[in-house]
């Protein structure tokens, strides 16, 4: 059966790896993002089953239009769009600056997933999957970015309860440090990268495929009783009981 997959932020990094993983099985994969050239190039790399769709996941009108343009049902929704917007925003003094930084991270990492999931809700296939990309930062602290990812995981608990009657699962995959993405905007100092690797038990950075494989499993037939959960993929950098 050909599945239909929607991956937000699917033009680069983790989202592109998720799109590639599903495209390698029998699936049509729609990838979204704000930069058309990046999406078109990613789709060209990944093959004809991957379709670019320009959409800012924080903009209600764009999200509505994007979802309206897709024929349902959607078997798997991956809310991957996001990142730490503090890397992009200039420093600003006073409460106005605090507000701008917090709103940007909440929009990018929490509201984006809420809007996309809400717009997709009626099109989600019975027995399908919703998977959000969270972050180790939700547990280790990283200002408004960590708080936004913690909020995403909290909201997912509610979402899993709501979608359960339709046998749709909802889970969070929470990466540690992942290389080969645009996340750090080339601003991560080498010593900090070393510290992040030293904190793992595996002695290496994660790669986008580590996350893609976990997402793929959570959308598989073997994972139909797994819902409302958060899964760390961090090489042991944040162990749990
Ligand atoms: P990237 O910056 O490579 O990927 C983020 C993608 O999201 C980009 O393709 C970007 O495209 C898209 N995006 C950002 N904002 C929006 C928006 N408003 N609407 C639509 N698309 C958007 O980094 P990663 O692959 O690392 O990030 C993927 C996810 O993984 C993020 O949620 C991030 O927080 C999370 N994560 C990453 C970690 C890491 O170490 N790399 C660690 C923990 C979590 P465009 O700019 O064109 O819109």
Automatic annotation (TrEMBL):
Coiled coil: none annotated. InterPro entries: KR_dom, NAD(P)-bd_dom_sf, SDR_fam. GO terms for molecular function: oxidoreductase activity, acting on the CH-OH group of donors, NAD or NADP as acceptor. Residues 3-139 form the Ketoreductase domain. One of its GO terms (biological process) is fatty acid elongation. Belongs to the short-chain dehydrogenases/reductases (SDR) family. This is Ketoreductase domain-containing protein. It comes from Amycolatopsis japonica.
């Amino acid at each position: 059966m050909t599945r239909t997959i929607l991956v937000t932020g699917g033009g680069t990094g983790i989202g592109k790896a998720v799109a590639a993983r599903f495209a390698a099985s029998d699936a049509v994969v729609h990838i979204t993002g704000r930069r058309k050239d990046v999406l078109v190039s990613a789709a060209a790399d990944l093959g004809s089953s991957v379709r670019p769709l320009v959409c800012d996941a924080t903009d209600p009108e764009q999200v509505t239009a994007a979802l309206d343009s897709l024929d349902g049902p959607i078997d798997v929704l991956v809310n991957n769009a996001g990142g730490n917007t503090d890397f992009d925003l200039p420093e600003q003094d006073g409460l106005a600056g605090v507000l701008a930084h917090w709103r940007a991270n909440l929009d990018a990492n929490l509201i984006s997933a809420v809007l996309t999931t809400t717009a997709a809700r009626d099109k989600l296939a019975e027995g399908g999957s919703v998977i959000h990309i969270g972050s180790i930062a939700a547990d280790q602290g990283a200002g408004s970015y960590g708080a936004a990812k913690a909020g995403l995981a909290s909201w997912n608990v509610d979402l899993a309860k709501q979608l359960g009657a339709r046998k749709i699962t909802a889970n969070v995959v929470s990466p540690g440090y992942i290389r080969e993405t645009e996340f750090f905007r080339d601003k991560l100092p080498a010593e900090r990268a070393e510290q992040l690797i030293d904190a793992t038990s595996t002695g290496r950075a994660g790669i986008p495929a580590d996350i893609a494989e976990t997402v793929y499993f959570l959308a598989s037939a073997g994972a139909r009783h797994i819902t409302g959960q958060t899964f760390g993929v961090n090489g042991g950098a944040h162990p749990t009981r």
